[in-house]
Amino acid sequence: MLKLAFLSVLVYPATVFAEVSDKETSSDLFWKIGLAAAIVCFVGTRIKPWLGIICFIPVALWFGILFLELHSPDVGTHLRLEQGAVYFLQAYAAFGMPLCGLLAGYFWHRKSAA
User: Could you name the domain of life of the organism this protein comes from (predicted)?
Assistant: First the structure.
């Protein structure tokens, strides 16, 4: 019986779908990096505006590489099917957090300098 099962698997190959989600960054990591970067950018910009911009550069590069991967033709379409559009929205929202930290630190720095 075992031989018959093994031979039937060899004779009738099935289509195998590879998961894309397990090879991509999880959405909770988006939020962790976004929150940590928002705090660092806020404090850096609060001290000196140019320091906040320097702190923002690595985060912008990380999210830029992530967005290139999310929108690549071979991975992006399958990732959207597996994770849904919410995954993409979370990535963009998490990138908005460091931007808000940078802007808040800049305006708070300007108010205290005046």
Answer: Bacteria
